[in-house]
Amino acid sequence: MTPAPAHPRDVLLDAQAAGLHLPVCDHYSGVEVRMRKSLQLQQELMQEFGHCVFDVTLDCEDGAPVGQERQHAELVAQLATAAAPGARVAARVHTVDHPAFAADVAIIAGRAGARLCHLMLPKVESVDDVLAAERLLDAAGAPDLALHALIESPAAVQRAFEIAAHPRIQSLSFGLMDFVSAHGGAIPVSAMGVQGQFEHPLVVRAKLEIAAACHAHGKVPAHCVVTEFNDAAALQAAATHAARQFGYTRMWSIHPAQIRPILAALAPDAREVEDAARILAAAQAADWAPISDAGTLHDRASYRYFWQVLERAHRTGRALPPCAQPWFAQEATMAP
């Protein structure tokens, strides 16, 4: 019997960065009605695309009413536990120095740790904050739960490489508004806007440091929110800029209307998907030896790149050419 052709993922092992399969959009909601609607929308898009195309992060830091932090954590744990099969649900807890932090982790990870895809830590300043969260997760019975860290201060940016190197960290996110505010007026408010955040040197430097730290350690850089949520064109422009010029492969959403523009902006274009599928199909037929395509030599170095193009196309819901579809046929995770 002739063996089946080797799958690209099995051949191109070093193409698989940690967290490569994370959806490109991370959608935040903290009010109960919006959290429930977000989970419902996630299911609707799973039905449309055949797999989960965005994470839902249930928010304690900005979502919990003051004095009701414990009740809110219990609600988050309840919603995460009740999420439909195939859903990707995360939670953002309070900061490490907040009185509710330990209870957040104990309740949410203790009751829903097996159901969560990750836990987001806001305002991480150093690896010590990651270690504190790790100890609590282990104590709560969630030793395998991934951590994402939100970098929001100049000092945290300076330590981004060290934070990204921690094996529990899967992704770093950039917190634009807190980063600007942390400079005590030295950065103008315009740097919080869609255009200014890509122009002010200190903000640009911070974004590049975080992206570089992630890529150095095989983690996923996640771009900050765009607060002008009614301006789809501005959002898509910001997402495209973050992806093409700053190396970000994931982005936050704070409104349902932002999800599809983020998917579109972080997806490869149709021509690149076609090229990637054609080249990889020819490479597979040649048992992954070098090939020539349209007069250009390709080998495993370029094969890795083109496989990542197809992975990104799949994660963003792009239609794949027929020759590439079998490589992803077993990854559908639609809820019944």
Reading side by side through the largest sheet, how are the strands ordered?
1-2-3-4-5-6-7-8
CATH topology of the largest domain: TIM Barrel
The count of DSSP E runs of length 2 or more, i.e. the number of strands, is: 10
Number of domains: 2
The CATH C-level name of the largest domain is: Alpha Beta
Mean pLDDT: 93
In terms of structural class, how would the helical and strand content be classed? Answer: alpha/beta
Q: Report, as a whole number of angstroms, the end-to-end distance.
A: 35 Å
Percent in helix: 40-55%
Oligomer: single chain
Low-confidence stretches: 332-336
For the largest beta-sheet, the strand count, sense and barrel status come to: 8 strands, parallel, barrel
What are the secondary-structure elements, in order, as H or E?
Answer: HEHEHEHEHEHHEHHEHEHHEEHH
Shape: globular
Radius of gyration: 20 Å
What would you say this structure looks like, in words?
The structure is a single chain. This protein has 336 residues and is α/β, with parallel strands linked by helices. It folds into 2 domains: 8-13 and 269-331, no CATH class; 22-265, TIM Barrel, CATH 3.20.20. The chain is 45% helix and 14% strand. Strand 1, helix 2 (32-49) and strand 2 (54-59) form a beta-alpha-beta unit. The longest helix has 18 residues, at 32-49. It is globular and about 65 Å long. The protein starts with 7 loop residues before the first helix and ends in an 8-residue tail after the last helix.
